[in-house]
Design a protein that fits this description.
It is a single chain. Helix 12 packs across helix 20. A two-stranded antiparallel sheet has the order 1-6. It has a two-stranded antiparallel ribbon with strand order 2-5. It is mostly helical. It has 20 helices and six strands. The radius of gyration is 22 Å and the shape is globular.
Length: 483
């Protein structure tokens, strides 16, 4: 039955190899079940509920990938998108977490539509490859910066009377800080990390452990580092040792009930479209999230699927030029987009096809059976619910730093010797990190790309889709400036 359904022989693999590959992928990405609640709970969302939502989203998305697309990839909430959810949409733009979930649902819905139509290929072809690489690298810089902040390595005392806010909106939410552009040195006193607090010391220890594990290519490095750091934090007084098993499971389902379906409730999707300004901000934010997710998934597919033969050249050609979802890559993107739609309903941030799937592919995974095994692994991980609130932020912050570093390789794909490319690429990545906004980074890159190409009279290098999107970004900035 497995042979016939997953076409194991046709893909030159066996059930045993697929199971091993699935377990390998699961161990490599299991850290997300602890990292996602740690980040999203900053918005006020109940962490136990996010924990269950993360698992259910991963299970549903990965099963769709395995059973529908027959591909060895696993899906779970994206690190880049969880950062955008928390730091850009909630803290930066001032939306509630319920409204942010509504945006996640919209992203999934829109992505499903464009994935099943020619609009998808128009977007893929319309955005210059150099800017795609800059977007990916910028997201890496963004989440690495957040990781360093959360670890306590970057701290500043800011005088609110001597700053110019980037978007004139205060950040809201638990533990949020107002991100601003400083004027001169007056009123801004850097607080140097002296490593005299146990939490900061533990974060440094965690970072060193994770760096060594990654350098030596230890499988499951992220998960091992989280567990080791949590244990080391016990004698340091950072890790909470108060665990109530029965109440933790009860809290998990109770908290999940508080976030499930909020995306479609009166405080979610339907409460965002109150003013023309809000409507435009929502449209641009949804577009930015969808664009980032689309390129992220395609990048993972191409980066891991070509050398292994999972995606043939004919399959790629069908993806770019064909209709519907006949190619494997088409079906994989359908799975990816449906998973994001379910994520919004279940109560978590956008999903993505995890690059950690490469570890399972390296172990021989070639079919959807690998994904099914990963999904089962996530389902079983529900038993770890009592440990969600035990994991200190010092154990999860370094993961953001290392993942960000891993994404820096995208900078190599940019031709920095070509100033016409270097300028928009720089502003794309720099604005993402320093403005705490992925959408602002994309906007900056698009605007400078058009300004430069138009000034050089290279209008043929500017696609219609780029003109339209950039116009919306400009309208958004104008509305923010006057109102």
């Amino acid at each position: 039955m497995l042979e016939r359904f997953f076409k194991l022989s046709e893909n030159h693999t066996t059930a045993r190899t697929e199971v091993i590959a699935g377990l390998t992928t699961f161990v490599a990405m299991a850290y997300i079940i602890f990292l996602n609640p740690a980040v999203l709970s900053m918005t006020g969302m109940p962490s136990q509920g996010v924990f269950l939502a993360t698992i259910l989203t991963a299970v549903i998305g990965t099963l769709i990938m395995g059973l529908f697309a027959n591909l060895p990839y696993a899906l779970a909430p994206s690190i880049g998108m969880q950062a955008m959810f928390t730091y850009t949409i909630v803290f930066g733009l001032g939306f509630t977490w319920q409204q942010a979930l509504g945006m996640v649902f919209l992203v999934g819905l829109v992505d499903v539509i464009i994935t099943l139509t020619k609009v998808r290929s128009m977007i893929v072809k319309g955005i210059p490859d150099q800017l795609k690489h800059a977007i990916a690298a910028g997201i890496g810089l963004f989440i690495a910066y957040i990781g360093l902040k959360n670890a306590g390595f970057l701290n500043f005392l800011i005088d609110p009377d001597n700053i110019i806010s980037l978007n004139n909106q205060a950040f809201h939410g638990q533990g949020a800080a107002k991100i601003s552009i400083m004027v001169g040195n007056g009123g801004v006193t850097p607080e140097i990390a002296t490593f005299n607090t146990p939490a900061v010391v533990l974060a440094l220890i965690s970072l060193v452990i994770l760096v060594l594990l990654v350098v030596f290519q230890v499988r499951g490095a992220f998960l091992i580092a989280v567990i080791a750091t949590t244990l080391i934090g016990i004698p340091m007084g950072v890790t909470s040792t108060h665990i109530e098993w029965s109440s933790s499971f009860n809290a998990m389902f109770t908290d999940f009930g508080q976030i499930f379906g909020q995306a479609l409730g009166k405080d979610g999707l339907w409460s965002m479209f109150t003013t023309p300004k809000n409507i435009l901000v929502v449209i641009l934010t949804v577009f930015s999230m969808g664009l980032s997710g689309l390129f992220d998934a395609i990048g993972t597919f191409i980066g891991t699927g070509l050398t292994t033969g999972i995606f043939s050249e004919a399959d790629q050609k069908e993806f770019y030029e064909g209709k519907g979802f006949k190619s494997k890559m088409d079906r994989g993107l359908v799975a990816d987009t449906f998973a994001t739609m379910f994520a919004g309903i279940l109560g978590t941030s956008n999903t993505t096809t995890f690059i950690e799937s490469a570890s399972g592919i390296k172990a021989g995974g070639r079919t959807g059976l690998t994904s099914v095994v990963v999904a089962l692994g996530f389902l079983v991980s529900i038993i770890f619910a009592p440990f969600v609130n035990v994991i200190p932020s010092a154990a999860t912050a370094p993961i953001l730093v290392i993942v960000g570093i891993m994404m820096m390789g995208e900078f190599k794909q940019i031709n920095w010797d070509d100033i016409e490319i270097a300028i928009p690429a720089f502003f794309t990545s720099a604005f993402m990190a320093f403005s705490y906004s992925i959408s602002y980074g994309i906007a900056a890159g698009f605007i400078f790309f058009i300004v430069i190409k138009a000034a050089k009279r290279k209008f043929n290098e500017i696609s219609p889709i780029l003109w339209v999107v950039t116009l919306f970004f400009l309208l958004n900035f104008i509305i923010l400036a006057i109102g």
